[in-house]
Design goal:
Number of helices: 11
CATH topology of the largest domain: Endonuclease III, domain 1
Distance between the termini: 19 Å
Largest sheet: none
Helix content: 40-55%
Order of helices and strands: HHHHHHHHHHH
Mean pLDDT: 94
Number of strands: 0
Structural class: mainly alpha
CATH architecture of the largest domain: Orthogonal Bundle
Number of domains: 2
Shape: globular
Radius of gyration: 19 Å
Low-confidence stretches: none
CATH superfamily of the largest domain: Hypothetical protein, domain 2
Length: about 220
């Protein structure tokens, strides 16, 4: 089976789940912190932890000044609080040295590759977190690759079977038109959660089944 075109995939996903317009953006540092909090937990828990952090501290400078025990106490609802508190404090302190007012709008003057490389130098910030900041907050055409996107894209043949997740971001960016990256990212996640699940993909109910080269390998689930 020929590798599906990402435009065709996107059309079928939109027909199934509806289109997805970008939500109201957080400022970049807020997006950075919220994405760190979202690691290895549910959206509900990460949002609760983020709200608690904002309620506890009067600004990012206060978070940077606080000790990690205080930060961990504020974000306990998000899980892995002690680890995430260290990352958040270290990242904010690093940012403060470069931009004391925590303004990251200068990243918009860079290309995606350069801006992402700048962000991943911060403690606790990987490719996915950096790409989320660029896409969701700054509207730049970066394609965040989480576990759902990675799994679904490989099954669809959009990514090579042995590709590293760090390389998957730029590969999907090459294949997707800049204006479609947001909706494609969001819809692949939704499809991965609802249909193309990790252990028991619902191939019989999949809107992409007819064009999915991975379906043959997964046919025992049908």
């Amino acid at each position: 089976m020929q590798k599906p075109n990402i435009g065709r995939i996107l059309k079928l996903l939109i027909d199934t789940y509806g289109d997805r317009a970008p939500l109201k953006r957080l400022e970049p540092v807020a997006e950075l912190v919220q994405t760190i909090l979202s690691q290895n937990t549910s959206d509900t828990n990460s949002r609760r932890a983020f709200k608690s952090l904002l309620d506890t501290f009067a600004g990012w400078d206060k978070v940077a000044e606080a000790n990690t025990l205080q930060i961990a106490g504020a974000i306990r609802a998000g899980g892995l609080a002690d680890i995430k508190a260290k990352y958040i404090k270290s990242a904010l302190q690093s940012l403060q040295k470069v931009t004391p007012d925590f303004n990251l709008l200068f990243l918009k003057d860079m290309g995606v590759v350069e801006a992402r490389a700048w962000l991943v130098r911060l403690p606790g910030v990987g490719m996915k977190t950096a790409s989320c900041v660029l896409l969701f907050s700054l509207g730049m055409p970066a394609f965040p690759v989480d576990t759902h996107v990675f799994r679904v894209a490989k099954r669809l043949g959009l990514l090579a079977a042995k590709i590293a997740v760090t390389a998957a971001h730029s590969e999907l960016e090459k294949q997707t038109g800049p204006a479609d990256i947001y909706r494609c990212h969001v819809l692949l996640i939704e499809h991965g959660r609802k249909t193309c699940q990790a252990r028991r993909p619902r191939c019989a109910a999949c809107c992409l089944a007819d064009i999915c080269p991975g379906r043959k390998m997964l046919c025992f689930y049908i």
